[in-house]
Please model this.
Amino acid sequence: SYLVRRGYSVYCIDNLSRATKESIEIVKECNIVYKVVDITDSSRIVEHIRRFRSNVLVHLAALVDAEESIRKPDLYAYVNVYGTSVVVGKALEYGVERVVYISSAAVYGEPKRLPISEEHPVEPVNPYGVTKLAGEHLVRVMCELTRKPYVVLRLFNVYGPRQNPSYAGVVVKTLERIVAGKPPVVYGDGMQTRDMVYVGDVVEAIEKAIETQYVDEVYNIGSGEPVRIRDLINLILELTGKEELKPVHAPPRPGDIRHSYADISKARKILGFKPKTSLREGLAKTIEWYMGRKLSRVE
Model:
């Protein structure tokens, strides 16, 4: 919807397996053409790419649950790696002039130094991170072979309105429990740090990746500031007025890293990326949305 407001013609394909009724309604309200297509379905991908005649592919489609990826590595490899090879390969074959690939900070794994720059070693610790890194390599090689430019954005912890709690991170999952009158869950001691970046800042970064002349590059997209999970959850409790719901602790989850936050100096300098939304402001917007509208899974 942001890109439409900025004057772009937007065509969306999604298999809707993890979509919400609300997100579909928003697409319908905007001037967005969307089709129900699975990115692993080569023939249908070709059909719609030829119909849309787009000049830029922004590839966000993926399974994104790190914990689930440990249980279902074959599914993650099929969708995130094979699916990427299909949609990017066919897009390049049928006229797309640029690929923007949405990757993840999960490619870095447990950091050896902080903040994490784009030069940090890539050593993912779960199958999800492995598949996103494989996607990066596929995009780079396929674009180099066809002499087409690409941009890779490694997103850190994105939050904001319209997230599906079933597949979202700590913010919306915490809100879901608070609304149900349940205490938030902290995995481990809560001293882990994350880089929380608001979705509104992320979509601005995507637009910059579409337009930039500085291509064939990888950019970190985050706030550039760490926050402890314990402090994040306490801030959500404060903003919702539910401070009586004291967090409960659970064992650390397999595949979770201890600390993570981005060095965004490259994106600042080259893309002109400037995160505008503070954590408090972004959480307030997310809470306002969540309290006003309930998500429901597409049946």
